[in-house]
């Protein structure tokens, strides 16, 4: 394919992505696991709100699922680079299944919230290794980088779809069959994912130099942190993702309190996700260079609809505003794809982990900030204030965005192919 901007470049189809050897079963297993994850997340959040009627406690439940992922992603980076990602994925899935089994037991016995938070913490901590390993796996599967960019969009769309589905039906599961059934489904998805990885993913040796022992582990981690913060493109992409999370997280954090007890909390949580699916479909039809040029404009537009929630409109108007903001979140797709391809292959595990840790930490702080604001003002005002703060921070980054460096990095990333055949 010609890497020149927009000149005769044909955007690959999703069908071409799914025909890449071994990708389809991996994609389906990942989608199934995500569905179960989000059902479990909204189930536990709704349980907490039912017990406490507190917006802050509900947002804290969601934040708890992000804080350990920050540590998990940040600290396991060198682990992902030291061991074949096949085994990292298998063991992380099995350990998460064990954690879900613990959550089921706690739900059945009506245990204290702090115990539920503790097991949820462990569940997400282990998940950090799985996320980073899966990203490295995908970069190896796709020799054609334009196919890889399309695969990132497909994976993001699948994640949003399964998140919306999980959130929308999660609340209903509590009323119909109880929280244990949702958690059981989550457990089974991890087992299925581990089996798919075992039989489908080839065993591939790690590459690059690695430090030895604990000192080498720490050295690898600090080196990756330095490489990330000093890189003129990677550092900007991570920073933009982090500050945008304040506007992205607020609707999900305060959706249940905004809905109150009218039963529409899951629908409000799903609205920005459905919007994101639409946005991903639209942006995916554009060439990768056009996608990357739209990162900053879409990021600036994303918080604007959320500012209107300060007027406390009806539930359906709030749902529309959340949907509109979600549509504009599509800038995250080219941001993530370009970040992955610009990163040096031998450092991908640790760099992906650190960058993911930063984003997760920002999301966790955003959930807590939105919950605190919703508790001390109102849930509607909390969303609007978070959106305003996000807009100011994004504007500050946009004012010094390195457009030429990003264009050069994109040209280079999409003109090269993977060192491994798919």
Describe this protein's structure.
The protein is mainly α and 422 residues long. Helix content is 78%, strand content 0%. Helix 3 runs antiparallel to helix 17 and helix 11 runs antiparallel to helix 16. The protein is globular, with a radius of gyration of 21 Å. The protein starts with 13 loop residues before the first helix and ends in a 9-residue tail after the last helix. The N terminus and C terminus are likely disordered.
Descriptive key words:
single chain; 422 residues; mainly alpha; Growth Hormone, Chain: A; 19 helices; 78% helix; globular; disordered N terminus; disordered C terminus
Largest sheet, described in full?
none
Quick one: overall form? globular
CATH homologous superfamily grouping: MFS general substrate transporter like domains
The helix content, as a percent range, equals over 70%
Average pLDDT score? 77
**SSE pattern, N- to C-terminal:** HHHHHHHHHHHHHHHHHHH
Separation, N- and C-terminal Cα atoms = 17 Å
- Can you count the beta strands? 0
**Total helical elements:** 19
CATH class: Mainly Alpha
What is the CATH architecture assignment?
Up-down Bundle
Number of domains: 1
Based on secondary structure, the structural category is mainly alpha
Instruction: Fill in the CATH topology.
Output: Growth Hormone, Chain: A
